[in-house]
UniProtKB/TrEMBL annotation:
InterPro entries: AAA+_ATPase (IPR003593), ABC_transporter-like_ATP-bd (IPR003439), ABC_transporter-like_CS (IPR017871), P-loop_NTPase (IPR027417). It comes from the Bacteria. Pfam families: ABC_tran. Keywords: ATP-binding, Nucleotide-binding, Transport. It comes from Isoptericola hypogeus. This is ABC transporter ATP-binding protein. One of its GO terms (molecular function) is ATP binding. Residues 11-241 form the ABC transporter domain. Coiled coil: none annotated. Belongs to the ABC transporter superfamily. Residues 309-346 are annotated as: Disordered. Gene3D superfamilies: P-loop containing nucleotide triphosphate hydrolases.
Amino acid sequence: MAVLDGADLAIETRGLRKTYRSVRGRSVGVEGLDLRVPVGGVHGFLGPNGSGKTTTIRMLLGLVRPDRGTATIFGHEVPKRLPEVVGRVGAIVESPKFFPSFSARRNLLLLADGIGAPRARVDAVLDEVGLTGRAKDRYKGYSLGMKQRLAIAATLLKDPDLLIFDEPTNGLDPAGIREIRQTMRGLADQGKTVLVSSHILAEVEQIADTVSIVARGRLVASGRVADLIGEGAGASSVRVRVAPEDTTIATSVLESGGLLVRREHDALLVDGAGDAAQVNRALGERGVWVRELTPMQADLESVFLGLTAHETPGGHTHRGERTKRGGPPPEPAHSAQPGPTTEVGA
Ligand SMILES: Nc1ncnc2c1ncn2[C@@H]1O[C@H](COP(=O)(O)OP(=O)(O)OP(=O)(O)O)[C@@H](O)[C@H]1O
C-alpha cells in the first residue's frame, strides 16, 4: 500500500472510529481510519456505498462526534479547534438550500451577506464555475448540474484553501459530471486542496492526484493514483474468450491454478495471471482453445477489487460476477477492465 508520507497535510485522521446505535445493536460507520490528505491537488476519497466516507466527512466538519481517534485540518485539531480553521474550509455535504425564485446571483449575494463574504466575490465565483452567462436565471430553472455548480460556487465565496465535496456528481448526467470534474480540477490547479468522495472510482481517477480507498470503514489503499495503478499493473490480468461450451471448464482450470476468475459477458477476466502465455498454456494443456487473449491495463477499480476481494464474498460489480467464492482470502490481485462502467459494489 502506497502511503502519503512526507507531504504537508491538509487533513489527517488517526484511528478515527464512529459507531451508530440502532434497533439491531451497534453498527460501525468508521473503524479506526487513518486518512492523510496532502495540501494541494485533488484527493479522491473512494469506496463503496456504506464504507464510511460521509461519516468521516461529517466528523471532520464537526457534524458527528467520533467515538475515538483524532482528526486535524491544516494541523488544527477538529472539532475542538474547528472555529480557528473553519474559514479556510468550504464543503458540500448535503444539497444546499437556495431560493427557487431568485436568480443564482441573488442567491449568492444573500449568502455572501449572511456569511460575511465580500459581495465582489459573487461574480468571481460564478465565473469560476462557468455560470456567468446564466447568473440572472432563476434557480428553479437550473439543471441538476448547474445547481451543483452553484453549490460549489457558494463554497468558494470565502475563498477557502480546502474544499470538501461529498459525492458531488450524484444524479448528474455525463455532461454534468464532466463539468463538475473540470471545476474541481480547475480549483486544484489554482493551488486549493479538493477532497472529493465518490463510489465511482474511475470517475475520480481521471482528475485525482492522490486517493484514499476505504472499505467497511477502513483504509485499504492510499497514495498517488499513478503509483497505485502502477502497483496494480504489476499483477497483471488477462481477458480470455473461449467457446461458450468451454467456459465452465476454462474457469475451473484457471481457478485450480490459483487464479481469480470473473465472468464479464461472454469473456473471463483472470486476475493475477502473471502473463497471458501462462493462461494460454494452462488452457491449451487441457484442450481448451483460446479465441481471444488480451492483457489488461490496471485501473483504480481493479486495484480496489484486488485489495478487497476477500472482504466482499457476496459482493460483485455490475461489470461481472466473481466466479471464485469461499476459500481462503486470496493475495491482493489487481485486474483491469476497459469500458465506461465504474461503480463499485459494496
Ligand atoms: N445516522 C446513522 N445512523 C445509523 N447508521 C448510520 C448513520 N449514518 C451512517 N450509518 C451507517 O454507517 C455506515 C457508513 O455510512 P456512510 O454514509 O458514512 O458511508 P458512505 O461511504 O458515505 O456511503 P454512501 O456512498 O452510500 O454515502 C453505513 O453502514 C451506514 O448505514
